[in-house]
Amino acid sequence: MKASSILLALLACSNFAAAAESIPLKNTVGIGIAAGAQHYDGTFGDNSMPYFRGHAEYRPTECIGARLIGGFGNISNGSTEFRTEYFSNIGLQGVLQHRFEVLGNVRPYLASGVSTDFGTVKWSGSQVYDLDYNFYMPVELGVEWLLTRNVSVTGFAETRVHAVDWDKLDGIATSGGYFDKRDDLYRAGIGLTWRFGLDSVSVPKVPEVAPVTKIVQEVKPAAIVKVDSDLDGVLDPMDKCANTPAGIKVDGSGCPIDSDKDGVADHQDKCAATPVGVKVDASGCPIDTDKDGIADFQDKCASTPSGVAVDASGCPVDSDKDGVADFQDKCPNTAAGVKVDATGCQEIKIEKGAKLTLEGIVFKIGSADIDSSSAPNLAQAARAIKAAPTAKIEIAGFTDNVGNKAKNQALSAKRAKSVQAYLVKLGVGAKQVTSKGYGSAQPIGDNKTEDGRSKNRRIEFRVK
User: Fold this and answer.
1) Disulfide: which of 56, 183, 202, 278 matches 42 by Cβ 3.0-4.6 Å?
2) Residue 410: closest CA among 398, 394, 395
């Protein structure tokens, strides 16, 4: 956009108070409070927790202002595995809030600036590090409804933009692209704002208009004998619905036809073929209590949470058929036949002499770098090992037989070592786990097929 266009827009904004009879904001100061929730989405999973904030603002022009924001509310993944303490933020933002005449005193706005986090990060109850001065750029969209000259209600939604190296909400650095590495934190809420100084701003007055005297000549109609008032073909003495709108088909009693007998006449019924006995709403359509697109009389899971994807029977989708619905499944790609726990992740039992293939551990092709999709499975494994502190475990790495044997041997050792280091970072005792690479030895699948080779590329736990 050219500089001249921007200048014209700002001039129009600053002078808009003269063009509309609504509440002005120029030369005001305000304070506000808000409550809502913040949603963490990162390496350890995702979870929502309460969030509270306050702000102070100054509005030098009608639609441009500045404000100081401060908020607090801890974040976690919904368990004791990862959470913060004393987590808070403070920042300085600019606000752009144009007044649209068609919306009256309902005004959308955009705010952004610079903010920083404070607080302490803990893994499984142990302090890891402080979050002090974790800078980011907030991007907030909101709408403000000016109830009076001094009080308004605000609704907002916020996300953040930050450099990858500054993103340390949970302290786990993962590989991949920008959106794989970063941890996200979204916020939303509603609040109140009180403003002062509006009395010094002149409000345009509506000029008084002299009343107009209307002279109406009363005309008394001649007496008319009404036979069929609503012209539906049923005479008034027999018409039980004497005010049926013109053009509507009626039955012998003069009432609108209701073909499916659901209590909603056909001309108002958006679902005119509803089965007999099915409860319907005011539009004549079957009731769908959980709003999942499957009517209650066909819905086998009629209390599905809002926004959850369902199948044709109205039940939450379970892509990997492990008995845990996708919206609750932290490991949604578990292989068929693998026994899982309530979170949908592989059930791991550390017992002496046990040999267990760890599911869902993915490496980049030809590399020992662990893909970020492996994080939930490795976190599950770490919890199981920490629950058996006396057990000694060998982490064994294997490859298929494709390629150079010596290179496969070295790659399997590196991958086993990467898993060992990851588990230690999650709190597993360094002396409790060892690693060893076996290359293409000890295959569990047929190396002549892709499925067999995929099974042979694996990580095993061997409990001594």
Assistant:
1) 183
2) 398
Asked if 299 and 411 sit in the same domain, the reply is no
CB atoms < 10 A from the CB of 381, how many? 30
CA 209 to chain centre: 53
Amino acid at 397: G
Write out the two tokens for 2.
Answer: 């050219």
Radius of gyration of the chain (CA): 33
CATH number at residue 355: 3.30.1330.60
CA distance 232 to 252: 10
pLDDT at 138: 94
Asked if residue 246 and residue 277 are part of one domain, the reply reads no
395 burial (CB, 10 Å; 0-12 / 13-18 / 19+) is buried
Cα–Cα distance measured from residue 80 to residue 39, given in angstroms and rounded to the nearest whole number: 16
At residue 50, the pLDDT reads: 96
- Kindly state whether residues 183 and 234 are assigned to the same domain: no
Angle at the Cα of 452 from the Cα atoms of 446 and 458, rounded to 5 degrees: 115
Rounded-to-integer distance, Cα 385 and Cα 423, Å: 9
The closest of 146, 61, 66 to 98, measured between CA atoms, is 61
CB 423 within 8 A of CB 310: no
Same domain, 457 and 404: yes
Give the start-end residues of each E strand in 241-375: 355-357
Same domain, 371 and 233: no
Q: Identify the domain containing residue 17 by its residue range.
A: 9-200
pLDDT of residue 201: 45
Under-50 pLDDT residues of the chain: 1-3, 6-12, 14-20, 200-203
Average model confidence (pLDDT) for the chain? 83
- Beta strand segments in 75-208, E: 82-96, 106-123, 126-130, 134-146, 151-161, 184-196
Rounded to whole angstroms, the Cα distance separating 433 from 157 reads 45
Give strand ranges (E) for 292-429. Answer: 355-357, 393-398
Q: Tokens 């306050």, residue? A: 54
Give Cα separations from 421 to 61, 101, 351 (angstroms).
56, 61, 22
Which whole-number Å values give the CA distances from 54 to 36, 57, 88, 155, 185, in the listed order? 12, 10, 12, 13, 18
145 belongs to a structural domain? yes
Report pLDDT for 229: 78
The counts of H helices and E strands in the chain are 5, 13
Lookup: tokens for 155: 């609704």
The model's pTM is 0.41
Residue 126 has which token pair?
């142990």
Q: Which CATH number do you get for residue 142? A: 2.40.160.20
